[in-house]
Amino acid sequence: MPSAYNSNDPLLPFQLPRSDPIFGPSSHLPQRTVHFGPSPTDSQTGASAGSVTSDKRKNKESPQNRLAVASLAGQGYSAPFQALTYHPGVWENREQSRRSSPQPGAASRDEGWPAFEAKAGPRDDPVTLELVDMAQAETLFDFFFAKCHPFLPIVTSADASPFNDIRRRCGFLFTTIIAIGSRFYLKHCARHGVLPTIAPATPAAIARLAYSHLAASLFRKQHQLADVQATLLLAGWGLQSGGGGPDPWLVTGHCARLAQRLGLHRPGPLPTTPEQAEKQLLQSRTWLAWYHFDGFLSLGFGRPQSQGFAGIDEQAFLQLGASSASGSEMRMDLYIASMVQLTKIGGDLISWIQLLTDWQADISRAPLTQDGQDYSVGAMLGELNKRLDEWTTRWTWNGSLSAIHLGTSGRLAKLQSEHIRLCLNSLALKPGLVKNDGSPESALMASYIQKATEAAINTVQAHADAVKEDMYLSYSFDYITIALGQAAVFLIRLHSTTCDIPVDRAVIAYYLRTAIELLEDTELSETKNSTYVGRICRDLSGVAGIAIPPRASEE
Known about the structure:
Layout: E1 14-17, E2 33-36, H1 54-60, H2 63-70, H3 134-147, H4 162-169, H5 171-191, H6 202-216, H7 225-236, H8 248-261, H9 274-301, H10 314-324, H11 327-358, E3 369-370, E4 373-374, H12 377-395, H13 401-406, H14 409-425, H15 440-467, H16 478-496, H17 505-521, H18 529-543, H19 551-554
Antiparallel strand pairs: 1-2, 3-4
Protein name: Xylanolytic transcriptional activator regulatory domain-containing protein
Domain Xylanolytic transcriptional activator regulatory: 248-325
Pfam family, one: Fungal_trans
């Protein structure tokens, strides 16, 4: 389910030049402008599109309509995460026209949305504002680096006391670290039978301060690398439940502007001193991590890709780190480099789908060629699967030296590669692609369905294995949690299809049930994101007629 669009629920039309350097030299898609979204003459995209009533929106968010979105029926494609989001009925990437004043009795679209004051000063942090004392802050700081930081490993300090160093340098980054740590700390303590050192209301108070810093960063005229890092971390870990925080894709957009203002997007000159090398390494590490995370958000949530960013060179980054990074930092840098290469594959997947959508290709595998090059769905699946196989051979195959050097980060890299493989190969399950006629084309498409099935099962199994390893995935950024829900949704589709499937339906039901129970049982966040995704998947299973027993009946 790649991030293009269903014609009945279009996204914002925009133009994407195929020659954009963000895709790297490996991209060979046609050099043409692609229109992503509905035609300006489409009757469904007129001014009335923004006047959707509350009842219609709620109807779009029903389990039946969520499952319809996930099924990829009809023309176009839905974003992988669309069926799992809080408001799938409000998914269009386009301006929503509306009356200047609501109708009497009609709820304002902004009603109930949280507001954050942009009044945090540069030195304001949870300690100075007495939200926590120094000992509590140190506990939450250490907790973040132990549990959360490995997922976006961008913050380092050469100081003997990183706590004091980061607090002195940037109140925004320090507050963000404490806020993310506190998001998981209370439930972590409860699960391990440890008496927490903070009050139940503390995480919400620190979250408000972190978002106040984020808002204030829009008004400040001077910024530093730590501001970029704090903003990227807030894009990864939302601090509000019920989808109440800012859209992470918008936050990474702000992050990119901060990074550009500081020149992070430009390759620097060769460093001549260890201090210059360390500074350049820190900047490159943050910039490449942004590239990875922003690219994944575009893929998962169907948002437009960021444009015009050149200099995405992970090999130069690794060469720089080889001469100056410590052993633990080198492992982090290898992980980031592997994610950059994976993100480039995901970016080309988005671009190819946009190309197919714009050309209104015949999705029944009819030839789609230009200048002798095949751009059909089958060609896309073949080429991008080959690149994924090459990525696996380099980064996560047991016989790879890079896999050895990745160490424990390898399991996270493999998990995210399974997500990309699922996004790609789940296309083969789109109604109308598989004919079941015994032809070579049908057999090939069935092999892609098998790849998607294996990716979904491997994703669920990775989360199940993590439970045995201190539940490390429970502290991950939100994207990884939603990707587990995506795997569950694919298993629901697979169980319901009339096509030949590569595994027994009892096996599908087992892994589907496992995924839902993992989402429900491994929740450690104050935002309850995992619980929400689990509930959506359970509802979708019921609509699809797959019996997943409620937990109470199993006790």
